[in-house]
Specification:
Structural class: alpha+beta
Shape: globular
Strand content: 15-25%
Number of strands: 4
Helix content: 25-40%
Largest sheet: 2 strands, antiparallel
Number of helices: 7
Amino acid sequence: MTQTSSFPQSLLGGIALSLGLATAALSAGVDINASSTGLAMQGYDPVAYFTEGTATKGDYRLTTAFDEATYWFATEENKALFEKTPEAYVPAYGGYCAFGAAMGFKFDGDPHQWKIVDDVLYLNLSADIQERWVADIPGFIEKADTNWEEIASTAPADLLK
């Protein structure tokens, strides 16, 4: 299998169909991937990735707001850890796909496609995208960091034009 740095146009078209599902940006800050209700990470507990090493659905009764998004937690302890230092737990690129950000786009980050690199949580769109991202994590993080400066406040759909 050959890895290329270009984003296949056929894949782009298919991914674009998923934009409406969970990448509806909050009106005040499109840099956070949250549902139209403001729920971040599809309700998964951001702390559990670090403490449990797994994607864990949060409880709607254990919530807190950060950066105009609502986060759910599996335990009171996880909620307390998040509230103490939220920046340590929120995913990179506002929870959008890390590979997509490297390509200059914002696609939904799947809470089940994740990796912690240097104490930062990264989400990806799908298993096959995660596989491509893992092939050159440092390179894709560098590209995504650079792109994020330009795309953070741009609505996902506007990046497809």
